[in-house]
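Model it.
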Amino acid sequence: MEQQHMFTNRMIRNLLVPVVLEQILNSIMGTADTMMVSNVGSAALSAVSLVDSINVLLIQAFSALAAGGAIVCAQYIGQRNYEKANMSARQVLFIITAISVVVSAVCLIFQKPLLRLIFGAVDADVMRASETYFFFTALSFPFIAAYDSAASIFRAQENTKGPMTISMISNIMNIGGNAVLIWVFHLGVAGAAISTLVSRIFCAVVVLWQLRKDRQPVVVKDYLKIRPDWSMIGRILGLGILRELRTVCFSLESLPSSLRFPHWEQQLSQLRQ
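Modeled.
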């Protein structure tokens, strides 16, 4: 007797392809900024490249935490316990967005010391451009976290096309915004950063608006009325932190050697063991 599988190959393909494309699109935004500021000058190019390597690290950390929340939400959906699924979705949005707000505030308050600590001695022009780009991208961290959280909730419901479509539109917006602000208004690094910020705000607003609709099992409304449930948050973070540590380790290994602290290599090897 032929064994019946829960998912056919076509169903798996329809779920996985949008996820892969979305991850590629998420990494393209910073790459597009780097490519499009290359005409502005070497200082602008260096600044965007350096700051983007740090932004990617933080974005991947938010995504890893959101994935941990998606696992909890998907477990409740599989049990058809939609009340708990909705509760876990609200907690995912709350805790990851709250963490991102703290990270964003720290980056904005200690912007100059952080950049000097991470990048060391760089040219004054590069440092000024880095501060400009880092300022606007740090403002976008809560919107990235909100998008990642909501997108992970959609994936837990087997909806991977929606987040991919939103990410695709935001990348088009970013490239178009870069072209106008960099080449028409001659804003340079600031233009690329502002376009990125606007595109990420668009992602967060649209995906949160979609999450309010009643056509899906998990619906989240009244975002400002969400209150912490620490037992649920503990489960979410317990799953997400392990993924985050692995993600951070691989991301640190991919950074240029000039951006690593001398003791990183030893710490990375200890974390892997």
